[in-house]
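Render this sequence as a predicted structure.
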Amino acid sequence: MKFSHSLLSISFSLLLSGISLGQVTQETPPKKDQTNNTKNTEEPKEKIPLVPPRAIPVEDDEPEVKKLTPGVFIPSGGTATLTEQADIDLFTKGKDIGNVQNNPKLPYRRLVQRTMMPTEKRPSYGFTLTFDDQLVSETPSDGLAIDIVKDLAPLRARSIFFANVPMVSGKSVNGIMVRNKSSAKRLAACKKLLESKREEFIKIIRSLIRVKSPADANGNAEYACEVYNHTAFHQNMSRLKVGSDRYKMCIMGIEFIEECLDAAYLAERPGWERARYFRFPFLHAPKYAETKAALNKTFTELGLISLGETQDSKDFDNFSHKQAYASLMAAKQNKRYNPKYGKYGQTEKPIALFHTKTWPKIKRGVIKAIISK
């Protein structure tokens, strides 16, 4: 069969960039009054990720395609579900995946906050559910990751968690900086703190990723959740500078989480081909070119790619089940969502962003959206 060279070149360029047609046609919300007034919040607000420019065709070669064995059930969430080599490369440690849109002026491709997850097929209820921050909490009113999994698994709804290390935060980093005057002592203190959390963190991850949803008519059961990297201390990475102690502790934490995830998945799912996603705290990527270059190198070594969102419920601010429901119902219509402007643009595979601790407040709206037609 013969194909147009221009069509092949466009398809291959999009595959190389890791961005689908659904992504490049998405719109940003209206630009009126884009500022968010944050109340009772010390940290910056999440920002709606920018949409990258359209792909530029550069090659005529056909992409490599991996064929899956017909009739063999492969659970969602791992890279074993991927067939396109360009998608497999995204999670391959040490693999240079090139520039954004193959543009030499946009070299930090692993840092792009994508709005699609290649390892997640779009579920029947219409959206991918992601939850950020701590998996556990010492505050009785906060939601726990395991509660989310137990509530959603019976509905065959998957939960995607972007996790920090338990019971540490940016305040932990501040304390280390104040109590220790030399770089060596600060890094040693950071390592000691993280190591004290390793066993507990791995145990928590294992308790989540072993849960399965009810089997289908063929006896096949999906895993109910996945856990990914959200930095150890939930630091705002926008102003981190390469070589600073804060940057070094941030990288130490990212690497620590990857080690814990590897250990947990190896124990609970031997042979699992793990995807490696990362979400920036507050969706704030580094601003400085030197930091971007260094972080992109680290992400390449670890096989990490960054993920954003399409359905921004701002549940962190309003704790609203109504807002959660509105956000997810927009997703069912292939619409993006922002609480200021409502539905807008288009999205091919909607990704909702919530916060784990708000689950008791938003649970009713999320479940209502899942079961709604």
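Summary. Confidence is low (pLDDT under 50) at residues 1-26, 32-62. The chain has one domain: 5-26+76-371.
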